Amino acid sequence: MSTDLQGKTIAFLCAPEGTEQVELTEPWKAVEQAGGTPRLVSTQSGRLQAFDHLDKADTFAVDTTVDVSDHTEFDGLLLPGGVANPDFLRTQPNAVAFAKAFFDAGKPVAVICHGPWTLIEADVVRGRTLTSWPSLQTDLRNAGATWVDEEVKICEEGPNVLVSSRKPDDLKAFCQAAVEAFKR
């Protein structure tokens, strides 16, 4: 195990239901293996229900909620995908404000799959270059971003480092790039 992220705490922002499990668990393991502390942040306390595409998968204990936490407790933010997860988060003002605060503070953010919907709602993708699940490309362009079809995109043209990937097949590259960004 490396110690690249020793002393760093990374927020994983997820809705109470609908997170793509592998997009939560693989980056979570990568943060732990790099010596960091992942914390599960949601809009409700208790447990969240993850999914394997459209099928219910495991549940995970929520560490804290967006109404009692803020970006100052964390060194970076990771937004997993799943269609329902970011679709719900973007309708929750506290969750949107929580995500936006990482950009305002210049802290690294990593996002995968449908996760950019939350960032679109936070109005933090304008002028940035990122990738996502292909169906979000029009949404991202309409929000002022440049969309690219790449395994992982690291954008440093903005107030923070923004790491993005398209889908679960990209997780190896995504996890490596996210850990690198969180090291800074």
UniProtKB/TrEMBL annotation:
Gene3D superfamilies: 3.40.50.880. Residues 8-180 form the DJ-1/PfpI domain. It comes from the Bacteria. GO terms for molecular function: transferase activity. Keywords: Glutamine amidotransferase, Transferase. NCBIfam families: PfpI. Belongs to the peptidase C56 family. This is Type 1 glutamine amidotransferase.
